[in-house]
Batch of 2 targets.
Target 1
Amino acid sequence: MSNRKLNLKDKYRLLTRDLEWEYSYRDYEEIFKQESFEGIKITDWSKWEDPFRLTMDSYWKYQAEKEKKLYAIFDAFAQNNGQQNVTDARYVNAIKLFLTGVSPLEYQAYNGFAHVGRQFGGVGARVACQMQSLDELRHVQTQIHAMSHYNKHFDGFQEFPHMHDRVWYLSVPKSFFDDARSAGPFEFMVAIGFSFEYVLTNLLFVPFMSGAAYNGDMATVTFGFSAQSDEARHMTLGLEIIKFMLEQHEDNVPIVQRWINKWLWRGYRVLTLVAMMMDYMLPNKVMSWQESFEVYFEEAATSLFKDLARYGIEMPAYAATAIEEKEHLSHQAWSIFYNYGHAAAFHTWMPTDQEMDWLSEKYPNTFDKYYRPRYEKWREMEEAGERYYNPTLPMLCQTCQIPMGFTDMENPTLTSYRQSEYDGERYNFCSDGCKDIFDHEPEKYVQSWLPVHQIYQGNCGGAEMEDVLGEYYRINLGVDNLDFHGSPDEERWNAWHNLQPAEDKLKEAS
Amino acid sequence: MSKVYIALQDNEESHYIVEAIEEDNPDSTVIYQPAMIRIENEGRMVIKRETVEDKMGRDWEIPALHVNLITLGGNVDEDDDELTLTWND
């Protein structure tokens, strides 16, 4: 009971220093085999400090409190038929994308931290990784639990782990994590602690979750904020390991800079999905993608890189491209998914007039000029009974695995296209960022499992689209996919609320 | 100058924490968004246990902040009496 008298600093010191022992009959290199091969030089692990000085007793205490609050809300949501009180059924498609695209990453993060937590010689870093590993397991569990309620009332939730490993657009987040987990332990920490936590989750779990709240989704906003409260700790850990590496040895600086460049871009490309969730999948709007990006990417990154300047770390060159793309990204992403709406496990749709006006207001330089005319054409086709679906398969970027739908910011009507040759083969990229990442580690990225290549090679269930989408991806064709208008989701929603189906409205209008 | 920030869930307990932050960081800006409260300040922000306890009228410890915390930006330093966020410019 004497530990009650200890203060936070003493408790943390005892946990992370006093429990360590000297290795007397085995070589250090034999125990921590992965600590040196990346070229990172650590001279003194005792300099590692967790800024929160979190100890196990306080970890369990506050995590338990978070869980109790969270599950009280899940219960209330389910008991009160919360699924009927979201703004409209289109919104739920963002949650389908979340469960299939993001929750499995939490599981990958749990695996990843359990692994690297074993690889570091410093006990402070090992303890921090162990706690983060437990956090990530909590996130995947609470997310599946929250969304299992939607699975009872909407289509497209039933096969999320199967889909995550196979479906074309899910290879974007999946390959991001595979890339991180197949790197060394220090690179993994930069990839996840910095890129995933700092760049990605802050945009996904803060402005998007605030949007979920504004759309009546009590369960999602609560798991989102509850997860992000752990992520705040993870971001701090990510920043700490970067500073720690930079302070340990000057030879670490160029290695860390290259990882930051790479992972800032990798994380930003995965954010493409979040961009369209913000601008297109939240019927009640809180803020645009551009506005969120300015606060949580531009402003946050500028502060961070000013802070790291004392170590000689600079803002990555690709950040400028990311900033230029902010007025285009969500529209280009939504266009890709609308094109391939038959091959997605969620529904797509054209924005309403009111929604298009909101997009014009939020994107005065780009929406009316580049995207509205295309949308109006697609809407006309839909009204004529010829809803547009692209029957061909897209070329994918070898690095980020996104279809080559991004355009050149100097000429936004021209597809951005880069190419490299390696070992007699040509490889295609969406950007300088993705090309440079490949050029530095071609042996790694030539192995990318590109969904389109795999389909053409006959590895995805067969030669017909139905074989791939139905058998191999396990999409319920005609139920999970296609336009929201005319979907069983829409029909159920309208029945709950005594609404007229959109199709009847269209018929009446014509 | 760079802005440090903290975002808290919009709930009863957080309202006292926000009051305390405003008192200890008079130049800070409080932004209310759906379900969350974001507080920003140039360069530095401090959350003091004593001020929060004073607002709540009961004991409160700094790690309890995590229960209502959503996210933060800045270098963190935490001890028994306060949590500070800072950016070096």
Note: Residues 12-24 of chain B form the longest helix (13 residues).
Target 2
Amino acid sequence: MSVLQRDPQDQVRVLDEDGSVVGDVPDIDDETMVEMYRYMRLARHFDTRAVSLQRQGRMGTYPPLSGQEGAQIGSAVALAEDDWMVPSYREHGAALVRGLPLKQTLLYWMGHEKGNEMPEGANIFPPAVPIASQIPHATGAGWALKLREEADKAVMCYFGDGATSEGDFHEGLNFAGVFDTPNVFFCNNNQWAISVPRERQTASETLAQKAVAYGIDGIQVDGMDPLAVYAVTQAALDKAKNPQEGECRPTLIEAVQYRFGAHTTADDPTVYRDDEEVEKWKAKDPIPRLETFLRETGRLDDESVDAIEESVKEQVADAIDAAESDPRPDPSEMFEYAYAEMTPEVEAQYEEFQALHEKFGDEGFLRE
Amino acid sequence: MTEQNLTIVQAVRDGLYTEMQRDDDVLVMGEDVGKNGGVFRATEGLWDEFGDNRVIDTPLAESGIIGTAVGMAAMGLKPIPEIQFSGFMYPGYDQIISHMSRFRTRTRGRYTLPMVLRAPYGGGIRAPESHSESKEMFYAHEAGLKVVIPSTPYDTKGLLISAIRDPDPVIFLEPKLIYRAFRGDVPEDDYTVPIGEAAVRREGTDVSVFTYGAMTRPTLEAAENLAEEGIDAEVIDMRTISPLDREAIVESFKKTGRAVAVHEAPKNGGLGAEITATIQEEALLYQEAPVKRVAGYDVPYPLYALEDYYLPSVARVEEGIRETVNF
């Protein structure tokens, strides 16, 4: 029986908090499992460094992901190369798995549009800042694949618990149900939409059960258990691409998890939540859980863990160097990318800008 | 009256507090306005003071926030919904355009909406994508709404209280670039600043410069710099962009015969166009130079590495004024 055939209130788990096996370990080769662990370590280290760059004034506002690596990496690893990913703004870890270099994630949060120029073949949409606004895009992208008879590929969309309150969530999932699109809607329920707790978003007992009303499948998974996340996502992707008789393609996955840090570097979570709650969730940290499992099954040892730690540090340091030594974007980019061809208005304004820039230089524009 | 020295965002909070104390029908609602006190601290402490029924953390849903506020207002409450950043107002745009602006007209005054929709707006704070746009003209274009944009702490409190007491819906846009940029004297008591009246910030005889919101400061700075070159610019802060104080525009223009409009919103269809048309309609024979618009460019607002090139700078404003005076 598919892992998806469960009640939306029955949370799927493979590893318990201590990393002991309590469910069916998905069929993942050893190399990929270790790779998952490495990606999670990389995402965590990147996150720590990114927050510190913001604190030092080297980067703008940044949304941290610590605590959510299990959900991001476990789900993204399940995507096939030809599948698509439609993220919100916190999926730096998942995007990394899809081939978005860390340098680009840094550039985006440093205010460069270049960070949004997705590498060819990575099949990622640019991050969507307005909450839930990307969900209908994901449905549309899945629908496009189906209309072109390419529904052997699927589109996975990420969003948070707060997004389920928005109209776009309803409309995106409703269309997916009606047109039976090859989609996986992956809800990173991290319990808090800035300061507003999950129970203030909806009176529903679970977010997964919202799927029922759209006539699609819904499932709740322990989002801090990367193996459970992988198993559920893999099954949902498989169903999106190859539904059996009587099955619908779309699935809503609610990955129950916690953000250890702030919503973004602009808020202070101690104002709205207790340390005790944070500590309770830190005990579920996805990284030591997977590490314990991998060590106990002989897939990792001290030596390989140390090597991973070193390589992760190096990779992040290199990405920061690369991003910081990237030249400031040229102001002409503002005008050049607005349309395929500049309209007469934009062209006139660009000329006016150039004349002013020539006359006053950067000092005529840049503020402190 | 006792004076306090407040920033603009503190003056917002003070205005809300003052009216909530005075009138039990006034309530605040939105994302993170309660325990967290608002992401900019505009509602700090109000939840402790007035409780969960008057300072309401809502689900994350702008159409829901604005739409339910319409329903509350129709029933006689005075809701003040906050949208966290003006860039997130669009899911509620249907409610604003189809309902907020039209309830009075549609019901021949049987139902009215004494509500104030607040949102921080504008660029310049190195914010992430979708957090920096100036889309005030979307609302100024919509009859049935009033659109207020303060630029000083004193005006912020006085205009906000006027907006709350106004029988019609008001969109109150707060220039977040200057939320904490400076302080000003603000009376502790309640007072009002009238909606629909511009303020002369600097008197001058050579050219009239019309602006509002966060652009008021660079415009004043430009005017002071140009005084050293012998150009005497008058700077007028519109304060309300709908209804527009056309009398103030015409009066100043008749004196100077030259005009510049400064705003960070895009040039195309910006307030500068409306100011120019007003001059054409009502003071053509006084005109000595083309009206100059120093505005945001007609391109999508860039991520912050380029935003300084997009926003009117002091040098750009100065150059616009020079061009107009030397025509």
Note: The first helix of chain B runs from residue 8 to 22.
